Amino acid sequence: MITLVNISPEAYPVSRSYFHRIVIPAAPAGGYSTFPIEDSKDAKVFWQSLSEKEVVPVTITAKEIVADLLVSGEGLEPFGVFALPEGRTTPTEAELDAARARRRQTLISRVEDGDRAFSQFGVRGIQHIPDMCKRAVRELGEMRDWVFNPIEGAKTECPVCGALLRNLSNGQPPAICRECQSILDPKRVSEHRPTEAPKRRPGRPKREKPAEPVTV
What we know:
Oligomer: single chain
Number of helices: 4
Distance between the termini: 112 Å
Strand content: 15-25%
Strand order of the largest sheet: 4-1-7
Shape: extended
């Protein structure tokens, strides 16, 4: 068995034929997560004819799986995932620091990719910048014109019902309570609500019936 260590705040789901699907868990803030990798079984099929086939069981060792996840296949090593030597389940501080340095360098490269895309497309092309570049800016604690940094965790208490309301992404408290629907900021509400009802466009004129002939 080989233990994988993840210092990234992201979880990594991986699908393979020999273990179907695993999820390397995300690391808690400032910490790390571990995931054991064991030998797995696979099957190799040899076709002798269209109607006959031979299935040979194949063992995929933990070393081969780790090499696939970290280097050749998923390439998770630059993102903060690394393997411990067999028999160890706890990383050293030096190993954690090395993983953090690799991830930081990867995040810096992503931010540079976002800067290049922004210089090419401008403000109207922010949607062309991948989300991974924006997440890298937030994780590094930097500011960019092409990344919106919400203020998380800030809440406001409703003076009417006492509910704790999450502030808007720009840091402002909500104008209307989501619980009791009380108006908390009349000025902002009036700015976003039309003062007059939209006038309806005139409909098609009513068709008059022809007058009936009068007989004398």
